[in-house]
Input
Amino acid sequence: MSIADDPEQPRGYLAMNAYARQQAFSDAAVARLRRIADVDIGECITDFDAGGDALAQARFLITGWGCPMLTPEVLDRMPRLELIAHAAGTVKHHVPAEAWRRGIAVSSAADANAEPVAQYTYAMVVLAGKRALSGAGRYAQQGQWPSEDWRGAASLVGKTVGIVGASRIGRRVLRLLEGHGLELLLSDPYCDDAAAAAMGARLVDLDELCRRSDIVSIHAPQLPQTRHLIDARRLDLMVDDAVLINTSRGSLVDTEALTQRCKGGRLDAILDVTDPEPLPAQHPLLRLPNVLVTPHVAGAQGREVMALGEYAVAEVARFYTGEDLGGAVSEADLATMA
Output
């Protein structure tokens, strides 16, 4: 039903922590939401048990970081609920399959969060291609520029970059890397040759990707079957001086195996996520000159977070004007969602 056909503004609630509310919703987004819905933007639900009888009037929820689980019992208390618009990435930690079975539409702002991760990854691929990380370490230790032989290899052009996972982020990274004189490889069990070619990459299995890539960047989801996807065996397949970039989830990499190979100087690593996270203060990965660990900052931060709120508000507007949701999530997506 569209707003034009509905005499009442749809009643909605925000279900997220105070940080998410403060960071994600600009004045413009709040003003737009108030034009299309009956919602108290200052009221955030962090405990559905404290929501009282008012939840019975909820027709939509905008969820975010800190949203409690929408159990079947909670959904029972919201019989009018027809839309869950998530102002962040994955919904699998708070939206159960039961929601779709009740006919509730679900949306995610994962597209808005993907862009800053892709930009971070692109920047790190460029630095890795230039061997900037290991070069900086040698410069600091030796007090002089690396040798001419080393500098001769410090070029992005001609490198082979392997992308693990044709996710929203993986696809964006491939797009950003086009036109840089790179050979682009892709490994994804749900992708075919034609789809990979359309993204400017050649589809290979993961072992071949590891053997051939100068830079390996991980963009696969965290699932039981992807734990230690990059294990000791696959790390040993990688060429000497290869760089592993991980902006996905720390569990996809065997931390101990990676640590040993970076300590030996055979591999470099750029990690925005780790396992465990955060790493203990004295962990070797935090101290090695050929490893850069950043504190999970690749995703939306600061003003970038506003894009998540704007996306969720736009989804509410689309839903109530009868348009298709831009970030629609299906029940089937839960099985492969990060």
